């Protein structure tokens, strides 16, 4: 599909939530997207994985989990070795920034909004 395979971490079945909208917009932009969340269901027609799948070639993890919930996912995030992690508004986490810088120094940390990056055509830059 694309060179920007993206995991939406915190995916939801609720079509008014930003994680759902991001999943839809990524699809609309021809970006391969894997929704990963707590509950089963589908986001934008794609089954939400809740088994923390190991996925090769992840470019981006875009976070839609608050900092307290992210703690349960630190090892999972590190295991995927993403090229970039996007901290969407409300997901900022200085502890995880430090872990990423130490464990995966090549990973780009971006505090931004995935929806805005897509809307201004900066997601792939």
Features:
125 residues, 7 strands, two-stranded antiparallel sheet, five-stranded parallel sheet, single chain, alpha/beta, Rossmann fold, 19% strand
Q: How would you characterize the overall build of this protein?
A:
The chain is α/β, with parallel strands linked by helices and 125 residues long. It has one domain: NAD(P)-binding Rossmann-like Domain (Rossmann fold), CATH 3.40.50.720. Helices cover 30% and strands 19% of the residues. It is built from 5 helices and 7 strands, in the order E-H-E-E-E-E-H-H-E-H-E-H. It has helices at residues 18-28, 67-70, 74-80, 94-103, 114-119; strands at residues 6-9, 33-36, 42-43, 46-47, 60-63, 84-87, 108-111. It has a 5-stranded parallel β-sheet with strand order 2-1-5-6-7, sandwiched between helices. Strands 3-4 form a two-stranded antiparallel sheet. The two termini are 17 Å apart. The mean pLDDT is 96.
């Amino acid at each position: 599909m694309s060179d920007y395979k993206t995991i939406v971490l915190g995916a939801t079945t609720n079509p008014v939530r930003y994680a759902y909208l991001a999943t839809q917009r990524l699809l609309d932009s021809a970006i391969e997207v894997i929704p990963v969340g707590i509950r089963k269901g589908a986001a934008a027609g794609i089954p939400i994985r809740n088994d923390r799948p190991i996925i090769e070639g992840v470019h981006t993890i875009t976070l839609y989990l608050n900092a307290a919930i992210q703690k349960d996912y630190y090892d999972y995030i590190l295991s995927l070795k993403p090229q970039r992690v996007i901290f969407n508004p409300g997901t900022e986490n200085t502890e995880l920034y430090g872990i990423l810088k130490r464990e995966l120094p090549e990973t780009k940390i971006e505090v931004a909004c995935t929806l805005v990056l897509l809307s201004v055509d900066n997601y792939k830059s």
